[in-house]
UniProtKB/TrEMBL annotation, chain A:
PANTHER family named in the record: DEHYDROGENASE, XANTHINE DEHYDROGENASE
Entries under InterPro entries matching the protein: Ald_Oxase/Xan_DH_a/b, Ald_Oxase/Xan_DH_a/b_sf, Ald_Oxase/xanthine_DH-like, AldOxase/xan_DH_MoCoBD1, AldOxase/xan_DH_MoCoBD2, AldOxase/xan_DH_Mopterin-bd_sf
Name assigned to this protein: Xanthine dehydrogenase family protein molybdopterin-binding subunit
SMART domains assigned: Ald_Xan_dh_C (SM01008)
Naturally occurring in which organism (per UniProt): Bradyrhizobium hipponense
Signal peptide coordinates: none
Automatic annotation (TrEMBL), chain B:
Domain 2Fe-2S ferredoxin-type: start-end pairs: 12-88
Entry keyword set: 2Fe-2S, Iron, Iron-sulfur, Metal-binding, Oxidoreductase
Gene3D superfamilies named in the record: 3.10.20.30, [2Fe-2S]-binding domain
Species, as recorded: Bradyrhizobium hipponense
Cross-referenced SUPFAM superfamilies: 2Fe-2S ferredoxin-like, CO dehydrogenase ISP C-domain like
One of the record's GO molecular function terms: 2 iron, 2 sulfur cluster binding
Identification of the protein by name: (2Fe-2S)-binding protein
């Protein structure tokens, strides 16, 4: 029954991706397709005084220049612009809505031309005059204006008093810079004019139904007027959760011109989208002399825009990880003249746990304890905030297996004590934690009598492997070879799915497949049971299984009727069943994934060059549906962690409120030569509570803890504690 | 500004041999080889990730050498033989690199993959990379945001027939 689940099955969409056949949003052809190019604001706050498009309009091949002054109607109420994952509080940005400038890089005009080169050239001819207003973009400069979010975690005990009386205390600010997702694919939309005001919209998105609902609301369309499709997504990491500028502009232009329109952002323009917000993380830890925690405080001060309150859980993770009788958390926002931040891989946790885990390392040094020992001293078997046990938590095993694979016992704890020729060697570790979320998802299975099944769902595969895990689970549940399963995803007309994010899609889609497959089996049993002399005449549904192309007794597979025979007897060619799966509400358990991350760095102190030569990531995330793609996902998260530790930073010139490194030569992400050995260990973690398959999800947990493990290794190598990320060579030399 | 500056230049005829097939295009002179392939020949397997030669997603083989097609003007390539990811498999059999990328799970989203594979094909032809360290160094012009680098190295080693 488990021929595929739990195995290293290769990606079912692999062939399409290695041959160039996989089509992404900006690659779908259309008759008479025209191209839009965006003109952006160059000031962070003010109004457009004058927008002169006459020179652009004179260029041969230019069809129109859309601005706030001449655009077709757009919804005028915030509710229409609030997509499924928009912040609760605020008024979402509306491209080309009016003359207001809210952030530098904001789209203010769209030049539409017969070809892309012409549109791009003509966009340079649009002249803009502004009425600028005073602005602020510097979080640290505006720190005093930080305002508390309304929903902090409830405090326990008296953290301030406990911190004041602590035998050993550590308090520090850790600064996480703004980071941009930079998926390799440029954000793109091809809005295909189907006639009569109807559109097929190929969009780069993590949620086709989110975009569909949003476009219908913004443009006042009926659900049947717009279809959103996104079969392949060239990475997103959270940047495609909310509908982005280009989908609004392409749709707007298609409706204005009654033609098919493509809009592709440039790499530079993608820095006008959402980002991981710069955050000052202030962590306070108070320990008793026996090396246990008595107080935890964590305050985050993060950037948001002036028009929306974006905030994620940076600070509450200590409640999951470390026993302490006293704790206090707060999350504050500073409103600046920038675009609204958005979710970026492990939002909240990547930043907050980075600070917490660096602070734990500093506390371990102060206590003269091994950092693992400190963590085991205050290991929490309960989520302290909710006072709940976990559905499963094999974090102890992660520490043990990771330490063993890494060789942690050979570590000399003294900083600057380990060398490899001229290089200093540092070994550091950290804990990772993320939520194990699951959402309602519907799946349709259409089984044909030749033993082929089409499995369809609106969910996206952003490179995470959804196509593959859906195919694996369906093949096992239907008892068919995986080659007989075809998977259709990411079309808004397919069965319901939320956005692809939060690490919830593997568990959510897998259980929807199981639910739909059970409906198929029910139908097959009813057909098979009616056959003359059927071996399954009186069988209960729970006593049957689909296996090897048959419906059979669960304990005796020889009591079987072939799927083909059952369908032939029932005189049907096809069984199509759709089922919406809901997970049982479980208020008695906390649900999390965990990891222990070990990092080795080698540092040439004279040059300040830092290399991450080894990472061991031991992950406890329930049952792993696909050990090949799962390992890759964790590895990818680790690479992101290397970037966060050493490379990534969006740099703003606060005199102009503009990003200075809006490209991927100066915004550094890890390249091949930056990445060495990465060892991913999946710790066995049976989970009988979370869901039928015991699956948790892997998208985020891979990054959490990695930046701290590297920072702690840098301290161990050099004796220098860098608390302002990324750890670049100038900070080490300084 | 003079009116003439606002007019698009004359189109120029260009002959290319793309994946073994002769193609003639009439292009404005600033059209890159990348846009010629994607927008004018509908060969969208070659990807645009930055348009500035920073990411390598647009890597193709020109007369057997790997180049960033976004930094290459099509008019400069008149008469050249261009191989894109669509031209690597023959008669439905994947190129050893393509198969190795699947076997080693050397991609996730797939967007950098065409460039990685073409770049790796160029790398193998160059014959400079002997071990994992050299592969890493010589493949560092091709960014992968999903972070599949160790698997990309393993795939290239598989195709080289070397551990």
């Amino acid at each position: 029954m488990n021929a595929y689940v739990g195995t290293p099955t290769s990606r079912v969409d692999g062939r399409a991706k290695v041959t160039g056949a996989a089509k992404y949003a900006g690659e779908f052809p259309a008759d008479g397709l025209v191209h839009g190019f965006i003109v952006e604001a160059t000031i962070p706050r003010g109004r457009i005084a004058r927008l002169d498009t006459s020179a652009a309009l004179k260029v041969n091949g230019v069809l129109d220049v859309l601005t706030h002054a001449n655009r077709p109607p757009l919804a005028g109420n915030d509710e229409a612009w609030k997509d499924e994952v928009a912040p609760e509080k605020g008024s979402p940005f509306r491209p080309l809505y009016d003359d207001t400038i809210k952030f530098s890089g904001q789209p203010i005009a769209l030049v539409v031309a017969e070809d892309w080169e012409t549109a791009k050239f003509a966009a340079t001819l649009v002249r803009v005059e502004y009425k600028p207003s005073s602005f602020a973009t510097d979080l640290e400069g505006e720190r005093s204006s930080a305002a508390e979010m309304d929903k902090p975690l409830k405090p326990r005990g008296n953290a301030a008093a406990a911190l004041a009386r602590a035998a050993v205390r550590h308090e520090a600010d850790y600064v996480i810079p703004t980071e941009h997702h930079n998926p390799m694919e440029l954000f793109a939309t091809t809005a295909v004019w189907d006639g009569g005001g109807k559109l097929t919209v190929y969009d780069k998105t993590q949620g086709v139904q989110n975009v569909h609902k949003f476009l219908c609301a913004v443009f006042g369309k009926k659900p049947d007027d717009i279809r959103v499709v996104s079969p392949y997504v060239g990475g997103a990491f959270g940047s495609g959760l909310r509908p982005q500028h280009q989908v609004v502009l392409a749709t707007l232009a298609a409706l204005a011109l009654k033609r098919s329109v493509r809009v592709v952002l440039t790499r530079q323009q993608m820095y006008g989208l959402g980002y991981r917000p710069m955050t000052i993380e202030r962590v306070g830890l108070g320990a008793k002399s026996d090396g246990t925690l008595d107080a935890v405080t964590h305050e985050a001060i993060a950037i948001t825009s002036r028009y929306e309150d974006f905030a994620r859980n940076d600070t509450g993770w200590a409640e999951q990880l470390y026993k302490s009788p006293n704790s206090r958390f707060s999350h504050k926002l500073v409103h600046l003249d920038v675009a609204t931040p958005c979710d970026m891989r492990a939002p909240g946790a990547a930043s907050g746990v980075c600070a917490l885990e660096c602070a734990m390392d500093e506390l371990a040094v102060a206590l003269k304890l091994d950092p693992i020992e400190l963590r085991l001293n205050c290991y929490s078997d309960r989520d302290q905030s909710e006072n709940l046990p976990y559905t499963s938590k094999q974090l102890r095993e992660c520490y043990a297996r990771g330490a063993e694979a890494f060789g942690w016992s050979r570590r000399n704890p003294a900083p600057r004590s380990m060398h490899d020729n001229h290089e200093l060697v540092g070994w550091g570790m950290a804990t990772g934690v993320w939520e194990a979320l699951q959402m309602p998802v519907a799946v349709r299975i259409a089984l044909t009598s030749n033993g082929h099944a089409e499995v369809s769902c609106a969910a996206s595969d952003i490179g995470t492997g959804t196509y593959t895990v859906v195919a694996q689970v369906a093949a096992d549940a239907l008892g068919l070879p995986i080659e007989n399963i075809s998977v259709r995803l990411a079309d808004s007309t397919l069965p319901q799915a939320p956005v692809e994010g939060g690490s919830w899609m593997a568990a959510s889609s897998a259980h929807a497949v199981l639910a739909a497959a059970e409906e198929v089996r029910k139908e097959l049993l009813s057909l098979a049971g009616k056959m003359p002399g059927s071996p399954l005449a009186n069988a209960e549904l729970a006593d049957t299984v689909l296996i090897d192309g048959n419906i059979a007794g669960i304990s005796d597979h020889s009591r079987a009727v072939s799927i083909a025979d059952a369908m032939r007897h029932g005189n049907i060619e096809r069984i199509a069943k759709e089922k919406l799966n809901h997970f049982d509400e479980d208020k008695k358990h906390a649900r999390n994934t965990h990891s222990a991350v070990f990092a080795e760095v080698k540092i040439d102190e004279q040059l300040g060059v830092i290399r991450v030569t080894r990472i061991v990531s031991a992950v406890a995330a329930g049952r792993i549906l696909n050990t090949k793609t799962g390992r890759s996902q964790i590895m990818g998260g680790v690479v992101w962690g290397i970037g966060m530790a050493l490379h990534e930073e969006t740099v703003m010139d606060h005199r102009f409120g503009r990003i200075m490194n809006a490209n991927i030569a100066e915004y550094h992400i890890p390249v091949n030569a930056d990445v060495h050995d990465i060892d991913v260990i999946f710790v066995d973690e049976p989970d009988a509570h979370i869901n039928k398959l015991g699956v948790k999800g892997l998208g985020e947990i891979g990054i959490v803890g990695v930046p701290a493990a590297i920072a702690n290794a840098v301290y161990h190598a050099t004796g220098k504690r860098i608390r302002r990320f990324p750890i670049t060579l100038d900070k080490l030399l300084g | 500004m003079a009116e003439a500056a606002h007019q698009i230049a004359e189109r120029i005829p260009i002959n290319l041999v793309v994946n073994g097939v002769g193609r003639t295009l009439n292009l404005v002179p600033w059209t890159t080889l990348l846009d010629a392939l994607r927008d004018h020949l509908a060969l969208t397997g070659t990807k645009k990730g930055c348009d500035h030669g920073q990411c390598g997603a647009c890597t193709v083989l020109v007369d057997g050498r790997r180049v960033n097609s976004c930094l290459t003007l099509a008019v400069m390539m008149d008469g050249a033989e261009v191989t894109t990811v669509e031209g690597l498999a023959s008669d439905g059999t994947l190129h050893p690199l393509q198969q190795a990328f699947i076997d080693q799970d050397a991609f996730q989203c797939g967007y950098c993959t065409s460039g990685q594979i073409c770049s790796a094909a160029g790398l193998l032809a160059e014959g400079h990379a002997r071990d994992a360290g050299e592969i890493r160094e010589l493949m560092s012009g091709n960014l992968c945001r999903c972070g599949a680098y160790p698997n990309i190295v393993a795939a290239i080693q598989q195709a080289m027939g070397r551990p």
